Structures are given as structure tokens and as C-alpha cells.
Amino acid sequence: MNAMPPRAAPMDQLLHILDLSDAGGAQTGEDIFVGPGEANPVRPRLFGGQVLAQSIIAASRTVEADRLVHSMHGYFLRPGDAAAPITFGVERLRDGRSFSARRAHAYQGGKPILSLIASFQGPDNGVEHQEPMPQGVPDPETLPTAADVLGAIDHPVAQAWAYDRPFDIRHVDPNIYFQAPGEHVAQQAVWMKSMGALPADQSVHRAALAYASDYTLLEPVLRRHGLSWATPGMSVASLDHAMWWHRPLRVDDWLLYVAESPSASGARGLSRGRFYNRDGELVASVAQEGMLRLPAGTPVVD
Description:
One of its GO terms (molecular function) is fatty acyl-CoA hydrolase activity. Residues 37-121 form the Acyl-CoA thioesterase-like N-terminal HotDog domain. Homotetramer. Residues 172-291 form the Acyl-CoA thioesterase 2 C-terminal domain. By secondary structure, the protein is of the alpha+beta class. It has a single domain (8-122, 142-293), classed as Acyl-CoA thioesterase, double hotdog domain (Porin, Beta Barrel). Helices cover 18% and strands 35% of the residues. It has helices at residues 8-17, 48-60, 146-150, 156-163, 202-213, 219-224, and strands spanning 21-25, 31-35, 68-76, 86-95, 99-108, 111-121, 167-171, 187-194, 235-245, 255-265, 268-277, 282-293. The chain has a twelve-stranded antiparallel β-sheet. It is globular, with a radius of gyration of 19 Å. It starts with 7 loop residues before the first helix and ends in a 9-residue tail after the last strand. Residues 1-8 have low confidence and may be disordered.
């Protein structure tokens, strides 16, 4: 098994999209920022995780430096154009003694494509507990990379997933890129980390984790029904995204991403996920509902 070497281009692109320009205030009283799209010849639509990450960075720019995002709830309203810039408007809802609240909208063509509310908190002490990290999970170094699995496949999507993502993603369970082997259960685990070092700024790491959390979160829904990403005619889209950051984290160190789907109905599937560092600390939790539509007659596992 060959280890995937760090690729400078995807990491440079991640840092580029998180480096928003400050466009000042607006007549509506919002703080305005502008960020680039992420042009990709195999994906004309914006990646949802990108818009989440950029919105979190925009909102973070409007709070005191010692207040970090600890929760976010967002709705994807329209598909975005990966080739077009994005405007972010941030409304300062409240600044209290310990917490700050912000509402952020991402716009393209004058229409909102994402709406979210985020809460920020300064350092504080209190009671602590966490759900323990699963035991017996293989180390990431023993698992195949996306390049190991997809690198030899002469297909633009396979090549993009193998080499153009800024995160190294390694499935603990059999991957479902082109088929859904193994037991059809509604849970899975993957290891992930960025393909290179990120600045020490904790806001950047938290935004980058939001970016990465959108890659595989709906896979437990697909896995439960014997579906792969290559299922002909399948349509999948994120509808909303909620995230909670519990403890300081680094996305340039390995994180175990454990996810499960408690329900799917009405052409929608719900997934919940947890991120652990290698010391077993629960650093973040996430939930997402996605749209899942299949052509009539598609075989599925009930």
C-alpha cells in the first residue's frame, strides 16, 4: 500500500477559499465579505462544505478574537455556481458577556444560497463528560488512501476524488465509491486529516472541519440501502447542516469521523456524526439531513 503524498495544490486552494476579502459594511447594517468559488471541471456546483466553511470564517471576523464558534445551524437554499464568487453578509445579532450570535447569508447573483446562525463563546470552565471513542478501530496508517483506491481509474470524478481534495480520507469500512460491499448497516467510520499543515488559528481549523464534515456524512444512508455514489440516476443533495465544536482541535492531525443514520423517509435521510482525535477526545459533533432520490426500479436493500 502506497501512502498518499501531500499535494500542494488542493491545500493551497483550501487556504485560498478561506481567505475572504473584507468588503466593508452595507446599507442593511451587515458586514460584507467576498470569497472565491472553487472551480472544478467535474463539479460545476459548489461543494456545500465550502460555503459552510466560508460563512463561518466570515462570521468569525466580526467577533472578538477569543470567542470561537461552538455551534452552527445552516440551511442550503439553492445550488451554487462553483465558477462564481460568493458574497457573505453577516448580521451581528448579539454580543453578551460570554456569547456572541451571528446570522450569515451566502449570496450569488443577489440570491441567498446558504443561511446560517452561529454562536461564539469565550474561554470558560464547567462540568465535562463525553461519549467514548469506539474501540478496536484500525489506525489510519494501515488503511488505503483514496489514491490507492481510485488513482488507477481513468475517470475524471475518480481522479478528482483521488488527488484534488484537500483532505486525506480513509474508510475504516469498505468504501462505497462504486459499489456497496459488506453488511448494509446505517453506520460507518472514516479517518481524515488535511493534506498539509494549517495555520494555528483555531477558527481556521474549525471552519476547515465544517468543510470536511460534508464529504461523507450521508454515506450511512446510502450504505444502509446498498447504494454507492455511482448508483445510476441517483440524486443526492444536502438540505441542512448543524455542527457543535466541543474542544480545541487540529484538522492537520488525524480525526476519526464516526457517523450513523437513524432514519430515512420521504426522499430524505438523516445522519449524525462525531469527531475524535487520536487521544480519544470528542472534539465535534455534526448532523445533516439530505435529499436522496432514486429512479423508479432502482434495487435497494430495505
